[in-house]
Amino acid sequence: MKSRKFRVGLIGAGGIAQNCHIPGWKNLPEAEIVGIADVSEPAVRKAAELAGGTRTFSDYRDLLKLDLDAVDICTPNMVHTPAALAALNAGLHVLCEKPLAVSTADVRAMGTLADKKKLKLMTAQHQRFTQGGLAAKAWVDGGNLGDAYHARVRAVRRAWLPPSPGFIDKKLAGGGPCMDIGVHALDLCLWLMGFPKPVRVTGTSKTVFAKGHDMPNLWGEWDRERYSVEDFATGFVHFDNGATLLLEAAWMCHQVENEDLLAQIFGKKGGIKWPSAEFATVTNGVHAQGSLLHPQSVPYPHWSEIAAFMDCVVNDKPSPVPWTETIKVIGILEAIYRSSEEGKEVAIKG
Ligand SMILES: NC(=O)c1ccc[n+]([C@@H]2O[C@H](COP(=O)([O-])OP(=O)(O)OC[C@H]3O[C@@H](n4cnc5c(N)ncnc54)[C@H](O)[C@@H]3O)[C@@H](O)[C@H]2O)c1
Fold it and tell me: To which H or E segment does residue 187 belong?
């Protein structure tokens, strides 16, 4: 008898769904996308075609009535929490794009519901599955870092501002580059540091260029009126073990690199950088350095992330990116905004 396939419903059928998640699910012969929901008719039609023909819905609550095992959420950030709570309440496992939510209260609500219902909840942090991420993590897990006492995190672009409303309208996005790309490098950095507990933050967030016309955007024009998130944010974080971290996130600035993506961790035994996976250490009293990157390629990271999610559900393994880790990432980003508003150092929630 043919065994049942893993049945997935997709919520949100835009860029990341079409380019990464649908190919990722199609890559798994044991899985099938049985329905897709999106408020946009052209987006859901195109996604259904890419998925090889599947049922479509304009309201995700109708999708949740199908016989599903899990949902994969690829909507704008502010839809993540209501969609995930509805899916968990319907008894479904959830893979959800980053940021899982834009507040620690929402992350906790999603996480505690998943735990109560014994369902898996995974944040789609695909950078953990990149070659640089995997290599750096293996190096750290091999005991080469020693105690981490400081880190630098950067997700700074010259002029790549995502123009779609889902990114620039605060009601849909919840935050700008801090939540959009800062979250990638910060998650990677905390993962390499072993997720120490962040306790307090001094931060600032501001809109430097995005309300004006001085900075040409390499991704085209955007709606200045609707633009209501920061385009630059920075924060200085203290952890309960005494370690510190400096973060910068921007969609626009005057720098020569199109994108400067970095997590650099300083440990007592060695130091490591992501994504380059370059390390520095002292061996037998001699300074030593190198790069862990090997020409051998790893599978496409979004596909690995999706395969890891299905594996954790099917084989009842822990979530590869659990909410208890994500809440520390979101706690820092949320505190940067709060510190900026209040003009002082703030304690981290979560
Ligand atoms: N991991 C990554 O590398 C990566 C890259 C890009 C985007 N993302 C994340 O993926 C998410 C989506 O980003 P995107 O680039 O695909 O955006 P997008 O704007 O291209 O697509 C979002 C889609 O969600 C739909 N949508 C909006 N509200 C909805 C609702 N209530 N129900 C169902 N569908 C709804 C929109 O119509 C749109 O088709 C965001 O959270 C973003 O942060 C992750």
Answer: helix 183-193
Output the ligand 1 site: residues, CB below 6 A. 11-17, 37-40, 43, 60, 74-77, 79, 97-98, 124, 126, 164, 166, 180
Average pLDDT over residues 18-25: 98
CA of 188 to the centre of ligand 1 (A): 21
Q: Using the mean position of ligand 1's atoms as its centre, give its distance from the Cα of residue 294 in Å.
A: 33
89 and 192 both lie in a single domain? no
Total of domains in the chain: 2
pLDDT of residue 1: 45
pLDDT tens string 169-187: 999 999 999 999 999 999 9
Residue 196 confidence (pLDDT) above 90: yes
- Find the 241 Cα to ligand 1 centroid distance in Å: 36
- Where in the sequence is the domain holding 217, given as residue range(s)? 128-299+329-347
pTM: 0.97
Q: Does one domain contain both 187 and 291?
A: yes
CB 149 within 8 A of CB 243: yes
* DSSP helix, strand, coil percent of the chain (3-state; round to 5): 35, 25, 35
pLDDT at 295: 66
What is the percentage of the chain residues whose pLDDT exceeds 90? 97
Amino acid at 87: A
The C-alpha atoms of residue 101 and residue 99 are separated, in whole angstroms, by 5
The alpha carbon of 11 and the centre of ligand 1 are apart by a number of angstroms equal to 9
Test site for ligand 1: of 21, 38, 167, most ligand atoms within 8 A of the Cβ = 38
The closest-lying atom of ligand 1 relative to the alpha carbon of residue 162 is: 15
